[in-house]
Amino acid sequence: MILILGLIILIAAIVVGLAGIFGNTGSEHDLGGGGDFSIFGYHATGSTGALFLIGIIVGAAALLGLALVVMGARRSARRSTRARRELGTSRREATAVEREHERERDDLIKQRDDARAETMRDDGRAGTTAPAAETTPPMAEPAAPAAETTAPVADAPRGRGRWFGHRAAPR
User: Which of 2, 88, 160, 164 sits at 20 to 30 Å (Cα–Cα) from 107?
Assistant: First the structure.
């Protein structure tokens, strides 16, 4: 909002200044000889000091507009920097949570495998054997279709990104 207000004030001051310059050219607008100075139909009769004061006011308005534009730009830049920083923080937190879940899953799988091995050992001491269906690993997944096997693995490390694709020539 501040940025837009500053742009409006700055553009208005520029328009008034340019209209004053280009609308009052020639000898008939000479202030010393009794001519008048007009901007958008407003006639400024009097001394050059009064005209100079009007110029100072227009310049101050332009300076105010420029200051508002710069202030608004800095504010939006700080806001976007803060958002990028928070995004990085949330990504790091999500990665940490994902690693913790992987550790917990690995611990549970290890506990399950240890319990199965102990059960098999206890069954071996008692003289019984486990059914054949139980000897297959429980984590074995069915074979994936050919289309899915060509997709890259999400956990695989990615190569260094290049702007224009792969290198054109070897090193």
Answer: 88
What lies within 8 Å, CB to CB, of 29 at 6+ separation is 35, 36, 37, 38
Name residues whose C-beta falls within 8 Å of residue 50's C-beta, 6 or more positions apart in sequence.
Answer: 44
Determine how many CB atoms are found less than 10 A away from the CB of residue 168. Answer: 6
131-138, long-range: CB within 8 Å, 24+ apart, which pairs?
Answer: 138/112
Q: What pLDDT sits at residue 112?
A: 93
One-letter identity of residue 114:
D
Tokens of 107: 């611990």
DSSP string, 89-130: HHHHHHHHHHHHHHHHHHHHHHHHHHHHHHHHHHHHHHT---
pLDDT in tens, 2-14: 888 888 998 988 8
- pLDDT tens digits along 74-94: 888 888 989 999 999 999 999
What six digits make up the tokens of 78?
């700080």
Q: What contacts 122, CB < 8 A, 6 or more positions away?
A: none
